[in-house]
Task: structure prediction
Amino acid sequence: MTDILRSLIGNALPDWLIVLIAYLLVTVIVLLFAVGNFIMMVWAERRVVARMQDRLGPNRVGPAGLLQPIADAVKMFTKEDIVPRTADRWVHLLAPVVSLAPVALMLAVIPWGRGWEPVDLHVAILYILAVSAVSGVGLMMAGWGSNNKFALLGAMRAVAQLVSYEIPAVISLLAIVILVGGMSLAQLPYLQAGVPLLGASIICGDPSGCASWLYSTTTLFPGSTQAPVQVLDVGLGWLVFTPVGLLGFAIFFIAALAEGERTPFDIPEADSEIVAGYMTEYSGMKFAVFYIAQYILNFTLAALAATAFLGGWQGPGVAALASMGGPWIHAAAALSAIYLLAKIWVLFFVMIWLRGAFPRLRVDQLMDFAWKLLLPLALVNIGSAALVVSITQWTGAQWGGLVNLDALTTWQRQLIAVAVSAIINGAATYWILSINQRPVLEPEARDEEWAAT
Amino acid sequence: MNTFITILFVVFAVYILVAAIMTVTVKNIVHAALWLISSFFTVGALYLLMEAEFIGVAQVLIYVGAVSILILFAIMLTRDLEGTQNRQMTPRWWIALIVPAALFGLLITPTVLTYQWQLPPPAPAGQSTPIAGAAQIGTAFVREYLLPFQVASVLLTVALIGAVVIAFEERERRRYVPTLAEKVRQQQRVRRPDPAASAMQSSETAGSET
Amino acid sequence: MPSMTEAVPLSWVLLLAGALFCIGLFGALSRRNTVGILLGIELMLNAVNINLVAFWRYLEPNVVAGQTFALFVVTVAAAEAAVGLAMIIAIYRSRQTVNADEVDSLRG
Result:
């Protein structure tokens, strides 16, 4: 962006001003993109859920009801702004802002396309998790500042849910951090090149005999000191195709549903139980800000899941286009952005689908699910991720002479790693699921059982 | 660019101090906690300015995401009844003011301003000084700081179990909170005492008199 | 790449940390509410952390010791907050108050 501005404006402005303008422009573009997606998501959700429930959904304003969100926005803007008399005025007013701001901050580190990352932070994954934790404070402020028991109950539920589901989300992403050896999100899609299951591990033996559109040049694994090699690359080495990535993706996606307060985890705003949760006392624009924050959070979490597990912008053809050089690099960037957007929308469609299909959980079921099922699975997943790294990257000396894999080629080692992690993850999933399906004994029956042993 | 960083630093510093002062002086304890959270967040931004990415993000994750939520939950679980919290300061709060003021004015400021720091020479033009990042911290935690790292994890486990044990309340000892219907029934019983019970009571008192 | 070491002298950062520490000390000494005392202690721990990170950045940026120390302080602060708040809740349950000067049954 800085280079483009520099070429447009020339050398009239000092460096720091150009950098500042570039960042402002990128910020505006990303925020507008997110809000545009928010509008489309609201429309899509209403239409798709209506279709699933055998209704029509909004179909009056504009073609197929496409302008309905804009009509809603006009309604929200013109509504009266109500602050309850006993509310804590400033806390009540600041709460929507505090819950929207972290969500907007999360957009900054997502790589939207090949070479289209607004900020390349070394600790991007940790940054996203840290910033998403801040929105809990906003919910707490909303619940307390409204001075309403339903609002407070909803806020307590929301924060308890947010804090519990953050742990499986963090740990499932940690497995990815171990696999790729870094916390930078911008690097993640590059590392998911290659073919399904094996990733970028099939090396071209003879550099002159490999077609350039099928092979690309990469280092074998992050941090390796060997020279870059030619590997078979069709842009499908997504982590979700490996056992570790599959389990991690399942855990992360469920945790993301809970963090974004989607059905079946929409307990904090269960309208049949506690009115509208922490949003009870909010009207007009303040309500709209909460609404925007929630949808953009869902959008960002879907983007994060797509980037970490589904290859991000990686897809067939991107590397081939980029290798042609010149103006084709921009074409590759555009194609990659379309891939990422398609993945985000597929994930969002699954979210809507789940909303149409599942009833709401109870609070105790919610907590059991996080602590007894997701957390143990995520911990097992970390173990198998470490095993995968050791099988694919360690030399015989690092194993201490126990195992020697030096003689095998890269793709053979990758295949062994996949088999081992598949066995571990499959067995652990089966075992933990079967434990959780055992009926919980009543206290009296449990005492009797204890007495019998 | 340097002026820009200086301005940023001054803005952050002033905000941190103002938020801290509000934290210790404001009357409403929830507002105090919210000021503290904003101060934590700005300290995280200050770490980013000092190019300590990992610490800055960890600060936000742990302090703003976890500790502050813990504090807010604790405040809401221990809310005082209305009207009892009219005095926030201890009676001799002015002594508490003198000690930190003296510490700052007489000890910290002169020491900091007069000591000659042996700063490393600035990097030659065009190069940047090597800075230890997240990768180096991670390596250090499994090499030379392995024992402290494990002790810290044991400490966290102990704190986790300890907090649960201390705050755990057995079901039988839980304070009984009557529902609205039970309250109303109780009040009605007080207002219109049961005729049979009052007759028995009067006979008892009559018996004790004789 | 401009850095903070050229733009801001070390003593400014240390003065900021010192002032933050003293404000936290005042809060911890003057509050009646035990949660308020805890808030003051958290401020003091933050001041220490600013100091550690500043020394790391200005004096030896290529060694990790300062950052590691700061991370340990954060760990201890989190543990301290968890146990301290659990104690406050336990005290509130048995005496219906969180004011430090009303919890004085050990006074001779």
